[in-house]
Design goal:
98 residues, alpha+beta, Elongation Factor Tu (Ef-tu), domain 3, six-stranded antiparallel β-barrel, globular
Length: 98
């Protein structure tokens, strides 16, 4: 099942330099309901992501503070797509079913 959404790119607070987008809550709820039994370490789920011309495999992670999942966006992807903090990304995401 593929999910499509737009979300703002943001920097994780602290020194790590990790960048994320937050999934819309309705999509996060649907993913949680559908794939609850397949969660891995830290509650993560394997996903395939497409944004612009970039496609990559990663995981989404639950963020209880935000009440959703967060999706890490690699520096390589940000550079290739010309993305910076605060930019809105058009995301196509599929949960990988093992």
């Amino acid at each position: 099942m593929e999910f499509a959404f737009a979300s703002e790119l943001w920097l994780w607070p602290g020194d790590a330099g990790w960048h994320f987008v937050s999934l819309p809550e309705d999509i996060a709820d649907e993913i949680s309901d559908r794939y609850d039994g397949r969660k891995r370490g830290f509650g993560s789920l394997k996903v395939q992501v497409r944004c612009g011309t970039s496609q990559w495999d990663t995981s989404i992670f639950p963020d209880t503070k935000r009440g959703t999942y967060v999706l890490p966006v690699k520096k390589q992807v940000r550079n290739r797509e010309g993305l910076a903090d605060g930019d809105v990304m058009d995301i196509h995401l599929s949960v990988v079913e093992d």
